[in-house]
């Protein structure tokens, strides 16, 4: 045990003395969360819009006020005729025009389908989709808030968003970033650090010592397990307090799932390192096996549902897919153990699989 | 009693036969040198003896433990210093030593006596990271780390390669004092001049052992008359000597050429021959054979003659 502790201590020295490792360990989560949370989000703030209110009634004014107070929109211009719409768009400043027809209040109060036309600049299609979605959601919320007092109001835009009615980008990205950072730190760093011992020749000296292979590997894994867990918590805190992610579910359950995922990532790292003796190869293998598939195939950035069939099948073997789903389920939807049981089981099975492979590759001798 | 018994051991990497049918024995308390150029198979032999590699065939016993069957017990009884500096560059001298002491279930204090003479030389720098040490200091630290668990047999793979002349001499002095404590030491080196410092040596080339004996007796294997020859045009000199009928072999040896003869003739006979080939500033003297002469001779006997 004393031997083992000495090994773990040595491992901490390695980590704390290598600036690059430290940077990856503690800089990465911050940068990633901030990048994905703010800069790269597909969320749009303060988009310039124009309003053409032909009705000029209480309802249209209230809806306009709601749109503007959401923070997503600001009025660039108030229009007075349809002709102006085209001209204003051509200036390239506004992203969207909201048009209230003359009969709006009349239709609304007489139980007919009241119409609001939303015209968006689709040259940036993602922005256009987001903006129209925001607007419809806000208009919808107006309907529900006044529904009690007056007869129901019908609107031609019939979109319904559950859990993230205003499509906040952080909701999508934070679980993904967390997954990515944990994978990167746990799997890549472990595989690289084991490969480094082999490359530097220190593995030889460790082999010719009473340390068992198990102690060497566990000694490598435990510091990273601890650091990854701290990292996971930092990301969660950043997500909840900075990006205003909801925490609807059981925190303990979430932390346990995080531990399971870190364990899986570490076992993949150990597995990779059992295949190669070079830091470069280990790094590359981590990138190709984990990083790229995680970014592209896990549903982190591109929705799995909109992938071609073949890629959808491949996405089933990406561990991140399951973890991202678990985090979303627990944090955003706030559903409990039962809903995440299957995904948890898949992760556990994957972890066992890689640990098993690593044990099989465990050596007592070089070569 | 023999501390190391190597019996007909072989190891190949793919098609390359690194060690083939090597046998030798090292007595307890002996300072035994494995002498040979790079690629002779010294490191592979070492790795097998310290249980890092399995031999393809043959067997070896170190400190009465079989290197295959009893490898776990053996690992606690040998000290191994690899040819490449294999300590943690980002740990300090003291942390490295402390780590290896703890891993072997001991402490610096417990075996301080054994490493004291060496450690005091690097102790002033004990808070310096190993990566920032000079070559000589690195070797001293590596030796301390290999000794810290009080091994019975010490394996040093090319400990003086890349180390300056002064540190090399100091290193060999340290080995001598360790030997006096009863430690069995197997050391490998590509430097022939270090061979004379060992009790016994084995000359190794192409995965095979050419000869095993004391340095003095090895040189006795060399029976031919040997001369050191120098002249103004070295390249033409070596050509002409190799073409001479009395020449057995001729190699460059520092500023002189070492000329081994087929049969006894005098230095003036050689001088006459060289003068007839228009050589100037001729200097010829009779010399005693060294280890390197024997080594070159043994190589030429076992393989294709090196002269062309």
TrEMBL record, chain A:
Broad class of where this protein is predominantly found: membrane
Topology within the bilayer: Multi-pass membrane protein
Domain of life assignment: Bacteria
KW Cell membrane (keyword) present: yes
Transmembrane annotation, as ranges: 21-40, 170-194, 221-243, 249-273, 280-304, 339-359
Residues annotated as domain ABC transmembrane type-2: 139-365
Name of the featured protein: Transport permease protein
Automatic annotation (TrEMBL), chain B:
Keyword terms of this UniProt record: ATP-binding, Nucleotide-binding
InterPro entries, per the entry: AAA+_ATPase, ABC_transporter-like_ATP-bd, ABC_transporter-like_CS, P-loop_NTPase
Domain ABC transporter: 4-231
Gene Ontology MF terms in the entry: ATP binding; ATP hydrolysis activity
Keyword Plastid: no
PROSITE patterns xref list: ABC_TRANSPORTER_1, ABC_TRANSPORTER_2
Cited Pfam families: ABC_tran
Chain coiled-coil ranges: none
Protein name: ABC transporter ATP-binding protein
Organism whose genome encodes this protein: Xanthocytophaga flava
Lineage: Bacteria, Pseudomonadati, Bacteroidota, Cytophagia, Cytophagales
